[in-house]
Every structure is written in C-alpha cells, then in structure tokens.
Amino acid sequence: MSREANILVVDDEAIVRESLCDWLNDAGYHVFTAESGSQALEILEEEQIGIIISDLVMPGMDGIEFMKKAKEMNPVVNVIIITAFASIPTAISAMREGAYDYIEKPFCPERLAILLEKLVEHQGLVEENISLHKKLKERYEFENITAKSPKMQQVVEIIKVVARSNATVLITGESGTGKELVARSIHSQSHRRSKPFVAVNCVALPESLLESELFGHEKGSFTGAYAQKKGKFEVANKGTLFLDEIGDMSANIQGHLLRVLEEKEFTRVGGNELVKTDVRVVSATNKDIKRAVTDETFREDLYYRLNVVSIDLPPLRERKEDIPLLAQYFLEKFATENQKEITEYSPKATDFLLKYEWPGNVRELENAIERAVILSKNACIEVGDLVQENSQLVRVTLAGKSLDEVEKNHILHVLTETNGNYSEAAAVLGIARMTLYNKIKAYGLDVKKIGTR
Fold this sequence. Notes:
Strand content: 5-15%
Number of helices: 20
Largest sheet: 5 strands, parallel
CATH superfamily of the largest domain: P-loop containing nucleotide triphosphate hydrolases
Number of strands: 16
Shape: flat
Number of domains: 4
Helix content: 40-55%
Radius of gyration: 32 Å
C-alpha cells in the first residue's frame, strides 16, 4: 500500500477533523472525514478505506463500538484510536479488541507520521504476500492439485483434456500420491460434474459384499438382505464411479465389471431385471497392473477397457519442487483448523522436508505436518516437531548413514542447540566433557561457527 492509501478520520470535534485532514493531505494521503460513527459507517460502505483514525469518546456510538462494526464490514481495516490521557486504559482495551494502536490528545504529528509509515509498510507487506500467494495458487494449483514440477504439470494437462471426454481412465501410482484427488478433478471438470461422484475401495470388502456394493441386491437374495438395495452403479448414474485398488478385484467381479462396461447394463444380486446405467468409470491401483495381466491375475480385456487413458502419478520423491508448496498448504490448513498461529518452517525443517524420501508420499507429508502443528508450541515448525517420537521418519532419515556419521551429526546438532556450551552438550549427550572434546577433534567438527564456550 502506498501513500495513496485512503484514511478515514472520525471525530465529533470539527477542529480535530480539520487539522488532521490538512496534515494528512499535506503528507500525501487521501482523507475522508466523519463527525460520528454512523456517518463513518456510511462512508465505509461506499469507499475502500485502509486506515481509520477514530476518537474514542464520541456521542452516540463510541470509538470501540464503531471499530467493531467497521471490522465486521472490513476485517482487514486498521484502526488507530485517539484518546485523552485519562482514557488510556480504555484505549489499551481497544487494542485487545482489534485496534492497531492509539495516540494521545493533544497528539504529536511526528508520532502519528511514524505510526502511519509503519502501518502502511505493514499493509503493503500483507498485500504483497496475499498477491504472491494468489499468483502461486493460480500458477501451481489446479482443482486442489499442487503442480509446480514438470511431471505434475503434465498430469494436470492430461486431466484438462480427458475430463471433456467420456473415456475410462486408469490412474496408477504408489499409495498416498493422490489418485482419488485426480479422479475427483476429472469429474469436477467434466460435463458430469453436477451428478454424483461415487468412490468404492475394492480391497476394503470381501467379494460377496463388493458385488452387492457395486451392483446392488434384491430383497431376500441372501441372509441379511431385508430390502432391495441400489448398487454404486445405480447411485452414480450420469456421474462418475471411482474404483480404487482395482488390482485387488477378484476374477468373478472382474467379469461382471467387464460386462457392465461393454453392455451398459447389469442385474442386481439375486435379481433378473436389467438395469441400465450411464456411468463414467475412473479406476486406480498402486499395483503393477501390466504384470498382473501377464501373470493372468487380472483380465487383459478388462485392462484395455479401463485403460483407454492412463495417468501415472509420480511419487513425492520425484516431484520435490512441489514439497514446499504442499507443506505450506497443509501448514495453513491445519493451523486454521486447530486455531494456532503457526506461519512458517525453520530453515532446518524445510531442509528436512526436502531431503526426506516420503515413502508414504503426499498422505505421509500431510499427516506429519498435521501432527507437527498440533504438538508445536512455537510459531515456527522445527525438525523436532516433524520427527518427534516418529520412528519411521527417524529411521528413514538415518538410513544409509554410517554410525560415525550419525554420531558426528548428532553431536553437531546438540552443540548447536546448546549454543556451543560444552558442559551442557556433554550432559545432554550423556558423556564426559573431555570425551566430547576428543570426539569433536576426532570428527574434525568446525565448532567456531557455533560460538563455543
């Protein structure tokens, strides 16, 4: 925000309004004035106001009541309260209610100038951050898919093209790479988006229940079938049916599915009536489906029916450019959900996020950050928040390193955490101070940068 910021001065004393207006105009600001809170609210409805300078004590609506109503209209507007010396405790209370700061009557123009410069600079940084975040979202996010890496950008382009068709899509990739998210994106970009999106996990149910889940059943068709039930193919009619873990489907169900894809009709379990269906099928698997075809555990004809268009999702270790964006997205999401003021990662935490291989992919990253946000006691996520008591993270992080390398890194980490205090570091490590000296010398650690003592 520049000096062209709009400022609203609210005071019932004409001399205060006029003097402030003259001074602010001379300083290069655009100024509006109001003699009461109600009049000021009318101006707020018509004009884009960035800063309000309001008297605390006014007839009718006082400064605090006006400020609350102003912030209801515009939550990001900043309010500076004008107060007499005797009302300073009330002014401090106003800051607890959301005021940016206060100035005393008679106020010093120099103090107000400094206050406004700080406020304008702050608002400029906020606006710049919002603008940058918006640009990043527009450039790298599509249907909640974060895609800065070339591989994921390619996936996004395929989604945009295939969504306009009715073709079946087979999504492959490791667990946690976001296969259902891609399926939902295809649906939401298609002409079927106003119709249901129905997801079925094919590995979560035994064969008999999966058949009923997909195709429905008639009353009395088996024990416990007390009423007719529509299957997912009926529920998803005109929409999209997402079949997750398709590679674990039994041969019998594979046969039924193939017939539905070819004939666009099926019968419920225990029934004879043909049910027509118009469903777009998107399937997914984390298995090597081509190998399953070769091994004859998955029908080749069904494979080609499902694989009209294929989308292979890269694991997170192959799209590390996306990790900072994903990490920030999850940080903001979970900080908001848990009402915690955590805004960033420490440099070491960021370095850890980028170096770790994430075998559980995006799902593991999301879970790790959610846990870190919940447990963190600071405004910044540290490495310890990410790996604390998480044996898998610690184990994988240390995998491939020699015992000497692990010990060397651990000693250096402890020395850093204790600001180079040898006695304190030795106590944390559980060794004698002289032993610590010897290990530092043996490993050739550069402790000068830490500032030892």
